[in-house]
Amino acid sequence: MAYQCIRTEVREAVALVVLNRPDALNALTDEMKRELLDALKAAERDESVRAIVLTGEGRGFCAGEALDEELVKLAEPPVDRTLRDLYNPIVERMRAIDKPIIAAVNGTCAGAGVSLALAADLRLASDKASFVMAFVKIGLVPDAGGTFFLPRLVGMGKALEMCMTGDKLDAAEADRIGLVNHAVPADRLMEEALKLAGRLAQLPTKAIGLMKRAFNRSLRVSLEDQLSYEADLQAIAARTEDFHEGVRAFLDKRPAVFRGK
Fold this sequence. Notes:
The chain is an alpha/beta fold. The chain has 2 domains: 6-201, Alpha-Beta Complex (2-enoyl-CoA Hydratase, Chain A, domain 1), CATH 3.90.226.10; 205-252, Lyase 2-enoyl-coa Hydratase, Chain  A, domain 2. It is built from 11 helices and 10 strands. The chain has helices at 30-45, 69-73, 79-96, 112-119, 146-154, 156-165, 171-177, 189-201, 205-218, 223-237, 241-252, and strands at 6-11, 14-19, 51-56, 60-62, 101-105, 108-110, 122-126, 130-132, 168-170, 182-184. The strands form 2 sheets. It has a 6-stranded mixed β-sheet, sandwiched between helices. Strands 4-6-8-9 form a 4-stranded mixed β-sheet. It starts with 5 loop residues before the first strand and ends in a 9-residue tail after the last helix.
């Protein structure tokens, strides 16, 4: 499908989704949000895709919401509807997709752009990337899952500091506090992101999807409930072709060839 604000391609088993409004640092318009959700759903449906990389074109990953004069003029801007109708479905879909998602943060990452990166499973950052929870600068609160994911990654104190001050973090600091998994040289970001995605795409996709379900659920249930859920998921995993291939490969002392089934 042809998009106006993003572009997509599939490289072997990896879907590359690129936010493509570089002149605006990939700030998110409503059209762009709809296209992003559609692209995520398409990657989810495509059985040939076993990993997803999300990145931005140009100097920015995503500068957050695209602000305009009309929004400023409104006495009560409809931001809650935008969240419920557009942002929240994107975040929910990213967490529900049973395939690993890597955010390759190539540059400026601000506001809802940070929330978008946080919703991914793994984050790689260019050494030229920066992160700023900019909501406080315009009198708003973090949204699109920012208040959910951020304290779980960096701790409550650091999360509150980032959000209350709106201070910018560079890639090295983001790596140090655990906001991203790794910071890499800018000229190697996409190489490293695609390499990681390709590696994940060769692993047992069903098991990785079940892992995502388990980790998502662990954030809201008791240990006893989670232990029972793990047993249920393990029963599902043990019925996959990849499990049987993994056991055969172990016994044969050879590398396993997983097919995501």
